[in-house]
Amino acid sequence: MPRSGAEARRRLQQAALELYRERGFDQTTTAEIAARAGVNERTFFRHFPDKREVLFDGEADLRAALMQAVAEAPDGLEPLEILLWAFRKAGRILEDNRPFSEPRLEVIAVTPALRERELAKAASLTGAVAEALRQRDVADRLAGLAAQTGWAAFHQAAQAWIDDSSQSLDAHLLQAFDDLRALSATVPPARPES
To answer: Which residues are CB-contacts of 62 (< 8 A; sequence separation ≥ 6)?
Structure first.
């Protein structure tokens, strides 16, 4: 039996991840997760409201880290540079949880209900990042666009890091934002006149 709440939570997350990979998300019950973790089902519900949230537990920490990092970014940076600075700081949360992050993404990728939840969480985080930019006096329309674009670059970097662990998440973030700058600097082809 786990002695601490943190240990029980970690064991529940690990048990859920193992069972989701073995049986699939839909075929796994909270009772089975609790049994695998060596706790009762009541303990599961003390830590998580449902079996989806086991995989999305770090969202509040990531949100708080991003909000704080946007607020603390050096003055004089453009919105996307503020976000790169913030994502580099907050990315340490993912790096510290790599053993959980990789299989977690695999489970989400094959489970429609989890992909839907991931999109909702991403939208919530993007909204929070946009609000943090607005609090730095970034215009509303630019804050929203920067948050959406920056989140897409962050997501791209995180997936690249999972696929290629020979480089750090930070290196993948720098590359994704360099790619983003290159895309925005590209001159579009001339439009044919109508």
So the answer is: 90, 93, 94, 125
- Structure confidence at residue 165 as a pLDDT band (50, 70, 90): confident
Which tokens in the block code for residue 88?
A: 């580099």
Answer whether residue 152 shows pLDDT above 90: yes
Contact 11, 38 (CB under 8 A): yes
Do 86 and 110 form a contact (C-beta atoms < 8 A)?
no
17 to each of 10, 79, 102, 178, 184, how far by Cα in Å?
A: 11, 36, 11, 34, 39
The angle formed by the CA atoms of residues 97, 168 and 12, to the nearest 5 degrees, is: 10
To the nearest whole percent, how much of the chain has pLDDT over 70? 94
Q: Contact at 8 Å (CB) between 113 and 25?
A: yes
**How far, in Å, CA of 17 to CA of 20, rounded?**
5
Environment class of residue 129 by beta-carbon count within 10 Å: exposed (0-12), middle (13-18) or buried (19+)?
buried
Token output for 189? 């082809």
pLDDT digits (tens, 9 = 90+) for 67-107: 999 999 999 999 999 999 999 998 888 888 888 888 888 89
